[in-house]
Amino acid sequence: MKIEARCQTCDRVFLLSQIGPDSDAPGRCPFCGARFGRHYTGVLIESVPQAEASADDFIHALGKIQAMETGFQIDIEGFLRAVAEHVRDNESHRATG
After folding, report:
1. Cβ–Cβ under 8 Å, residues 54 and 60
2. Segment 47-71, tens digit of pLDDT
3. Is 85 part of a structural domain of the chain?
């Protein structure tokens, strides 16, 4: 699953894979060249494919559950709200930590 991000320097949207290990300029904005996480470039570049693969794995696993006749229905909207809250919590911890 492709994950989008927005450069805080040029305000353009790009795919995280565009700054990953297979990109022309790993760890840099594909548009303005701004360096992302200059002190964490190695971890950032390594984490991009991991995040996208984890999203793919999650979608696949959830799809397998949905394909079964389980007798229940997954609350997708509630789950997505919870995921969004956790992601935002990570951002706020980073900003204050």
Report:
1. no
2. 999 999 999 999 999 999 999 999 9
3. no
